Amino acid sequence: MARRRKAVKRPVPQDVRYNSPLIGRFISHMMTRGKKSTAQQIIYSALDQIHDETKEDPVEFVERALDNVRPRLEVKSRRVGGATYQVPIEVSDERQVSLALRWVIQFSRARKGVPMGRALAIELMDAYKNQGSAVKKREDTFKMAQANRAFAHYRW
Protein backbone atom coordinates (compact mmCIF):
# COMPACT_ATOMS: atom_id res chain seq x y z
CA MET A 1 0.00 0.00 0.00
CA ALA A 2 1.53 3.28 -1.11
CA ARG A 3 1.95 5.82 1.67
CA ARG A 4 3.31 8.77 -0.25
CA ARG A 5 0.14 10.35 -1.56
CA LYS A 6 -3.54 9.72 -1.96
CA ALA A 7 -4.66 7.99 -5.15
CA VAL A 8 -6.45 10.32 -7.53
CA LYS A 9 -10.11 9.47 -8.13
CA ARG A 10 -10.83 9.21 -11.83
CA PRO A 11 -14.20 10.40 -13.12
CA VAL A 12 -16.76 7.64 -13.56
CA PRO A 13 -17.52 7.01 -17.25
CA GLN A 14 -21.13 7.60 -18.22
CA ASP A 15 -23.03 5.06 -20.26
CA VAL A 16 -23.95 5.80 -23.86
CA ARG A 17 -27.73 5.32 -23.71
CA TYR A 18 -28.77 7.04 -20.46
CA ASN A 19 -25.72 9.31 -19.77
CA SER A 20 -25.79 8.09 -16.18
CA PRO A 21 -22.59 7.58 -14.17
CA LEU A 22 -24.38 4.94 -12.06
CA ILE A 23 -25.27 2.83 -15.11
CA GLY A 24 -21.71 3.33 -16.42
CA ARG A 25 -20.39 2.02 -13.14
CA PHE A 26 -22.86 -0.86 -13.25
CA ILE A 27 -21.56 -1.83 -16.71
CA SER A 28 -17.96 -1.70 -15.48
CA HIS A 29 -18.79 -3.95 -12.53
CA MET A 30 -20.68 -6.37 -14.76
CA MET A 31 -17.86 -6.63 -17.29
CA THR A 32 -15.69 -9.75 -17.23
CA ARG A 33 -12.54 -10.32 -19.27
CA GLY A 34 -12.77 -6.86 -20.84
CA LYS A 35 -15.99 -7.60 -22.73
CA LYS A 36 -17.70 -4.26 -22.29
CA SER A 37 -20.12 -4.65 -25.20
CA THR A 38 -21.45 -7.89 -23.73
CA ALA A 39 -21.88 -6.21 -20.33
CA GLN A 40 -23.74 -3.32 -22.01
CA GLN A 41 -26.08 -5.72 -23.81
CA ILE A 42 -26.88 -7.48 -20.53
CA ILE A 43 -27.49 -4.26 -18.57
CA TYR A 44 -29.55 -2.62 -21.31
CA SER A 45 -31.69 -5.74 -21.82
CA ALA A 46 -32.36 -5.83 -18.06
CA LEU A 47 -33.26 -2.13 -18.05
CA ASP A 48 -35.56 -2.62 -21.07
CA GLN A 49 -37.33 -5.48 -19.28
CA ILE A 50 -37.73 -3.34 -16.16
CA HIS A 51 -39.17 -0.49 -18.25
CA ASP A 52 -41.58 -2.85 -20.02
CA GLU A 53 -42.87 -4.36 -16.77
CA THR A 54 -43.00 -1.29 -14.52
CA LYS A 55 -43.41 1.62 -17.02
CA GLU A 56 -40.96 3.64 -14.88
CA ASP A 57 -37.71 5.36 -15.75
CA PRO A 58 -35.13 2.54 -15.52
CA VAL A 59 -32.33 4.76 -14.15
CA GLU A 60 -34.45 6.00 -11.24
CA PHE A 61 -35.68 2.45 -10.67
CA VAL A 62 -32.09 1.17 -10.41
CA GLU A 63 -31.14 4.03 -8.07
CA ARG A 64 -34.00 3.20 -5.70
CA ALA A 65 -33.28 -0.54 -5.91
CA LEU A 66 -29.61 0.02 -5.06
CA ASP A 67 -30.59 2.32 -2.16
CA ASN A 68 -32.40 -0.67 -0.66
CA VAL A 69 -29.26 -2.81 -0.99
CA ARG A 70 -26.63 -0.30 0.18
CA PRO A 71 -25.12 -1.31 3.57
CA ARG A 72 -24.77 1.44 6.18
CA LEU A 73 -22.57 -0.59 8.56
CA GLU A 74 -20.14 -3.45 8.08
CA VAL A 75 -17.59 -5.27 10.23
CA LYS A 76 -13.85 -5.14 9.76
CA SER A 77 -11.32 -7.40 11.45
CA ARG A 78 -8.99 -5.65 13.91
CA ARG A 79 -6.17 -7.45 15.67
CA VAL A 80 -5.72 -6.23 19.24
CA GLY A 81 -3.34 -7.96 21.65
CA GLY A 82 -3.36 -11.35 19.99
CA ALA A 83 -7.12 -11.47 19.53
CA THR A 84 -9.05 -10.61 16.39
CA TYR A 85 -12.25 -8.62 16.82
CA GLN A 86 -14.98 -7.92 14.29
CA VAL A 87 -15.31 -4.16 14.69
CA PRO A 88 -18.38 -2.44 13.22
CA ILE A 89 -17.59 0.59 11.04
CA GLU A 90 -19.66 2.96 8.96
CA VAL A 91 -19.39 2.44 5.21
CA SER A 92 -18.41 5.33 2.93
CA ASP A 93 -20.80 6.33 0.15
CA GLU A 94 -18.47 5.07 -2.59
CA ARG A 95 -18.12 1.68 -0.93
CA GLN A 96 -21.88 1.45 -0.28
CA VAL A 97 -22.59 1.76 -4.01
CA SER A 98 -19.75 -0.59 -4.88
CA LEU A 99 -20.96 -3.29 -2.48
CA ALA A 100 -24.57 -2.90 -3.63
CA LEU A 101 -23.57 -3.33 -7.28
CA ARG A 102 -21.34 -6.29 -6.44
CA TRP A 103 -24.06 -8.06 -4.45
CA VAL A 104 -26.78 -7.53 -7.08
CA ILE A 105 -24.49 -8.88 -9.81
CA GLN A 106 -23.30 -11.78 -7.64
CA PHE A 107 -26.82 -12.97 -6.85
CA SER A 108 -27.95 -12.44 -10.45
CA ARG A 109 -25.14 -14.70 -11.63
CA ALA A 110 -26.18 -17.29 -9.05
CA ARG A 111 -29.60 -17.68 -10.72
CA LYS A 112 -28.98 -20.69 -12.93
CA GLY A 113 -31.09 -21.55 -15.94
CA VAL A 114 -32.11 -17.93 -16.54
CA PRO A 115 -30.53 -15.59 -19.12
CA MET A 116 -28.32 -13.04 -17.38
CA GLY A 117 -30.33 -10.02 -18.51
CA ARG A 118 -33.52 -11.56 -17.11
CA ALA A 119 -31.79 -12.62 -13.88
CA LEU A 120 -30.46 -9.09 -13.38
CA ALA A 121 -33.91 -7.60 -14.00
CA ILE A 122 -35.48 -9.99 -11.49
CA GLU A 123 -32.84 -9.22 -8.85
CA LEU A 124 -33.25 -5.45 -9.33
CA MET A 125 -37.03 -5.73 -9.09
CA ASP A 126 -36.68 -7.78 -5.90
CA ALA A 127 -34.28 -5.18 -4.49
CA TYR A 128 -36.76 -2.43 -5.38
CA LYS A 129 -39.43 -4.27 -3.35
CA ASN A 130 -36.97 -4.77 -0.44
CA GLN A 131 -36.80 -8.53 -1.02
CA GLY A 132 -34.34 -10.90 -2.59
CA SER A 133 -30.87 -12.19 -1.89
CA ALA A 134 -29.01 -8.87 -2.13
CA VAL A 135 -31.29 -7.24 0.47
CA LYS A 136 -30.89 -10.30 2.72
CA LYS A 137 -27.10 -9.92 2.43
CA ARG A 138 -27.40 -6.27 3.52
CA GLU A 139 -29.54 -7.26 6.49
CA ASP A 140 -27.10 -10.02 7.49
CA THR A 141 -24.21 -7.55 7.32
CA PHE A 142 -26.14 -5.11 9.49
CA LYS A 143 -27.02 -7.83 12.03
CA MET A 144 -23.35 -8.82 12.25
CA ALA A 145 -22.41 -5.19 12.93
CA GLN A 146 -25.12 -4.88 15.58
CA ALA A 147 -24.03 -8.09 17.29
CA ASN A 148 -20.44 -6.83 17.49
CA ARG A 149 -21.10 -3.24 18.54
CA ALA A 150 -19.53 -4.03 21.93
CA PHE A 151 -16.19 -3.89 20.09
CA ALA A 152 -16.88 -0.49 18.53
CA HIS A 153 -14.34 1.16 20.84
CA TYR A 154 -11.57 -0.69 18.94
CA ARG A 155 -12.35 1.40 15.87
CA TRP A 156 -9.53 3.71 14.75
Q: Which consecutive residue ranges, at least 5 long each, have pLDDT under 50?
A: none
What's the SSE pattern? HHHEEHHH
CATH topology descriptor: Ribosomal Protein S7
- Per CATH, the superfamily is Ribosomal protein S7/S5
| Fraction of residues in H or I helices | 55-70%
CATH hierarchy class name: Mainly Alpha
Rg from Cα: 18 Å
What is the strand content?
Answer: 5-15%
The helix count comes to 6
**Number of beta strands:** 2
Sheet with the most strands: spatial strand order: 1-2
**Overall spatial form:** globular
- Protein structure class: mainly alpha
Number of domains: 1
CATH A-level architecture? Orthogonal Bundle
How many strands, what sense, and barrel or not for the largest sheet?
2 strands, antiparallel
- Indicate the mean pLDDT: 92
* Terminal-residue CA separation: 18 Å
